[in-house]
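Re: weekly structure request thread

Next one in the queue (276 aa):
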Amino acid sequence: MHFHYARSYRGPVQAVILDWAGTTVDFGSLAPVAAFTRLFAIQGIDLSLDEARGPMGAEKRDHIRRLCALPRVAAAWRDHYGESPDEATIDRLYQDFIPLQMATIRDHAQLIPGCRETIDQLRARGLRIGANTGYSREMMEPLAQAAAEQGYAPDSNVCATEVPRGRPYPHMSLRNLIELEVETVHACVKVDDTLPGIEEGLNAGMWAVGVAVSGNEIGLSLADWEGLSPAAQERRRAAAYRRLLTSGAHDVIDSIADLPRCVAAIEVRLARGEKP
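Done, posted below.
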């Protein structure tokens, strides 16, 4: 006879893995967009904000490659330079991009409201805090330093350039879990404002929580968001929630300020024997 023993983890959440821009810092995820549009403007190509945001969440060199592959951008490049951008061009663009990105990161390093309080609450419950990003380590350093000065320092911090593949591959989150010495992926939550970031969490076997208002889906500064009418806010919020939920997120929150409630809800699901 064949017996199947269904093992399920029913304990508390052990760790959260947080994205950086749009999730813990930089309300609206504005730093990357500013750098990408500036990079292409210098090349004589006008990049719309929506185009610049399209591949958000990816490692930055890969993001540039995907922007170059957009039919409109590729056509504009051919008109301008007589040929399509090749790998050598992408390498050169990435080198030009680094200082532009470093400059905008420093301008957008403000913690998202509620971030520090949320981290304190989660740590008080015994959770470990990991972070990962599409930024390289050199881009990450000034951001991590600015966040630490404001009271946020994750226990593990992994960059896309330090693993074989960036998002949507699960490599960064899995490296976070190894560094945090976590027992099971079922006890972990990935929190991200981009679709590749949600996919990364799902591919790692974790719970995935989307961030709608403070991140890439809405893409507005806090002041611009607060300047919208309640009806306009509700329209934009509903569209962001829909996109993140249809990408597979188990739950969606406005911002990191709502994460403790969400972690508590996941713990109820775990106690029932549910898995991500």
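The chain has a mean pLDDT of 96. The beta strands are 15-19, 128-133, 156-159, 188-192, 207-211, 251-253.
Next request, please.
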